[in-house]
């Protein structure tokens, strides 16, 4: 491993995303694993994170806190974990990439506040194709306006803790901004009456080990437009997160987005 490679800390290292991040860091000569963090009291604390991720010993133990120097941290944990990590990164001036979802609005604002001190990127989804989907959905909503009934359907594995997904919520925000509406309806039940104009429906499915699907439906009289993205595995998310980490290294403090990473900011 080159001494000039970018040192990455992973927060949430024992989860599905965390493990795959470690695997793809090891496969990238421009990167190296600098720290691996899991929840306090994890039964594998102190063991080699590379062994836990299935890539062999890397000399990086699983810890509960950031106790090693790194160039960038990628957080894929839970909201409470992110809130504990962000001030540590701010104090040490370490760029932070946040892929955790499920924040309450006040939690999200609390994390974003640290962009005054460090380069910070928060994304519900790091996939390049998903971020293109968001752009296209916004363009379609703007073009169709209130002529279309807009519904968003997402499908994820049955282990996912938050619903709807952060990506589905962001898609709703994008199309809502385009049509001037924030009337989000999460599923429907009972005698709800005729569907009003400007309503944006969100529907969450939880099945098996599905890594993620999102479809934005624009229903018109006599026709329908659907924009969809289907993840075949988690690599699109993971590679995007690593691109974000490379992008943030050396950047000045502020809040960044995936559009900045993709050159569309």
Task: Give an overview of the whole structure.
This protein is an alpha/beta fold. The protein is 33% helix and 25% strand. Strands 3-2-1-4-5-6-12 form a 7-stranded parallel β-sheet, with helices on both faces. Strands 8-9-7-10-11 form a 5-stranded mixed β-sheet, with helices on one face. The longest helix has 17 residues, at 128-144. 39% of the residues are buried. The model has no long low-confidence stretch (mean pLDDT 94).
Q: How does the SSE layout of this entry go?
A:
Layout: E1 6-11, H1 16-26, E2 31-37, H2 49-53, E3 62-63, E4 72-75, H3 79-92, E5 96-98, H4 105-112, E6 119-122, H5 128-144, E7 149-156, H6 166-179, E8 183-186, E9 199-206, E10 213-220, E11 223-230, H7 235-248, E12 254-256, H8 258-261
Parallel strand pairs: 1-2, 1-4, 2-3, 4-5, 5-6, 6-12, 7-9, 8-9
Antiparallel strand pairs: 7-10, 10-11
Helix pairs in contact: 1-7, 5-6
- Strand portion, in percent? 15-25%
Please give the order of strands in the largest beta sheet.
3-2-1-4-5-6-12
Number of helices: 8
The description of the largest β-sheet is: 7 strands, parallel
Shape: elongated
In the CATH hierarchy, what is the architecture of the largest domain at level 2? 3-Layer(aba) Sandwich
* CATH topology group of the largest domain: Rossmann fold
- Note the quaternary state here: single chain
Query: Helical percent range?
Result: 25-40%
Number of strands: 12
């Amino acid at each position: 491993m080159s001494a000039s490679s970018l040192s990455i800390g992973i927060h949430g290292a024992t989860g599905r995303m965390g493990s795959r991040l470690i695997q793809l860091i090891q496969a990238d000569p421009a990167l190296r694993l600098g720290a691996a963090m899991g929840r306090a009291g994890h039964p594998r604390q102190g063991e080699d994170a590379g062994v836990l991720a299935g890539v062999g010993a890397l000399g990086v133990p699983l810890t509960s806190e950031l106790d090693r120097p790194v160039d960038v941290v990628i957080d894929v944990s839970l909201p409470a974990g992110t809130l504990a990590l962000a001030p540590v990164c701010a104090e040490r001036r370490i760029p932070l990439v946040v892929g955790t979802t499920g924040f309450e609005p006040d939690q999200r604002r609390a994390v974003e506040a640290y962009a005054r001190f460090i380069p910070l990127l928060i994304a519900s989804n790091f996939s390049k194709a998903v971020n293109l989907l968001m752009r296209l959905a916004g363009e379609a909503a703007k073009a169709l306006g209130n002529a279309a009934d807009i519904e968003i359907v997402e499908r994820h594995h049955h282990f996912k803790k938050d619903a709807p997904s952060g990506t589905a919520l962001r898609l709703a925000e994008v199309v809502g901004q385009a049509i001037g509406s924030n009337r989000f309806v999460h599923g429907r039940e009972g005698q709800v009456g005729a569907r009003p104009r400007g309503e944006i429906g969100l529907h969450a499915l939880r099945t098996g080990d599905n890594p993620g699907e999102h479809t934005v439906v624009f229903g018109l009289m006599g026709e329908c437009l659907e924009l969809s993205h289907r993840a075949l595995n988690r690599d699109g998310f993971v590679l995007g997160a690593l691109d974000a980490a490379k992008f943030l290294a050396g950047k000045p403090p502020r809040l960044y987005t995936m559009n900045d990473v993709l050159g569309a900011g």
